């Protein structure tokens, strides 16, 4: 379980959410939520899934955020095959999740750049590329990525992925969020689904 997602926590999510680009409704709900788990569930119930995804990605460690996004891509590919370039980006992102090394990160960047950051898959690969190291090409001064760049790239990837079926955008995000909460914050006494 991710400690910040513990359903028994009594830590208010208001301070965490205050610094994020979320809706006014999400900010209002964060002020009254008992904890982050409750807030995410209320946001889903209120059809504020975009806010819930952004918040969840910010609290997950980078590798977990990217693993969750990869899982969403894999499940979506079962419904309808991903375009070949996005499938290759998914492979690069999964390789970084499994390996975590700089060579895997740089390979993911090559996939993101090849996709010109125009597709869901390109943003997924970018999320891995932004996980550490330098954003500058080899041989240039090191330019470390900002702390939440991986989370923000995962957010872009998931939102773009959900638009593959525009009329189901919100429900698709809710399904992915439910799965994430089941894995990262399982109910007390039970294993993750």
What does this structure look like?
It is a single chain. This protein has helices spanning 14-18, 24-32, 36-45, 49-59, 62-79, 84-99, 102-114, 120-129, 149-162, 169-184. With 193 residues, the protein is mainly α. The protein has two domains: 3-59; 62-167, no CATH class.
The biggest beta sheet reads:
none
Number of domains: 2
Shape: globular
Instruction: Quote the beta fraction.
Output: under 5%
| Assembly context of the chains | single chain
The N- and C-terminal alpha carbons lie at a distance of 13 Å
Order of helices and strands: HHHHHHHHHH
Give the total of beta strands. 0
Query: Radius of gyration over alpha carbons?
Result: 17 Å
Class by alpha and beta content: mainly alpha
Keywords:
193 residues, 2 domains, 63% helix, globular, disordered C terminus
Summarize the structure.
By secondary structure, the chain is mainly alpha-helical.
Secondary structure elements and their pairing?
Blueprint: H1 14-18, H2 24-32, H3 36-45, H4 49-59, H5 62-79, H6 84-99, H7 102-114, H8 120-129, H9 149-162, H10 169-184
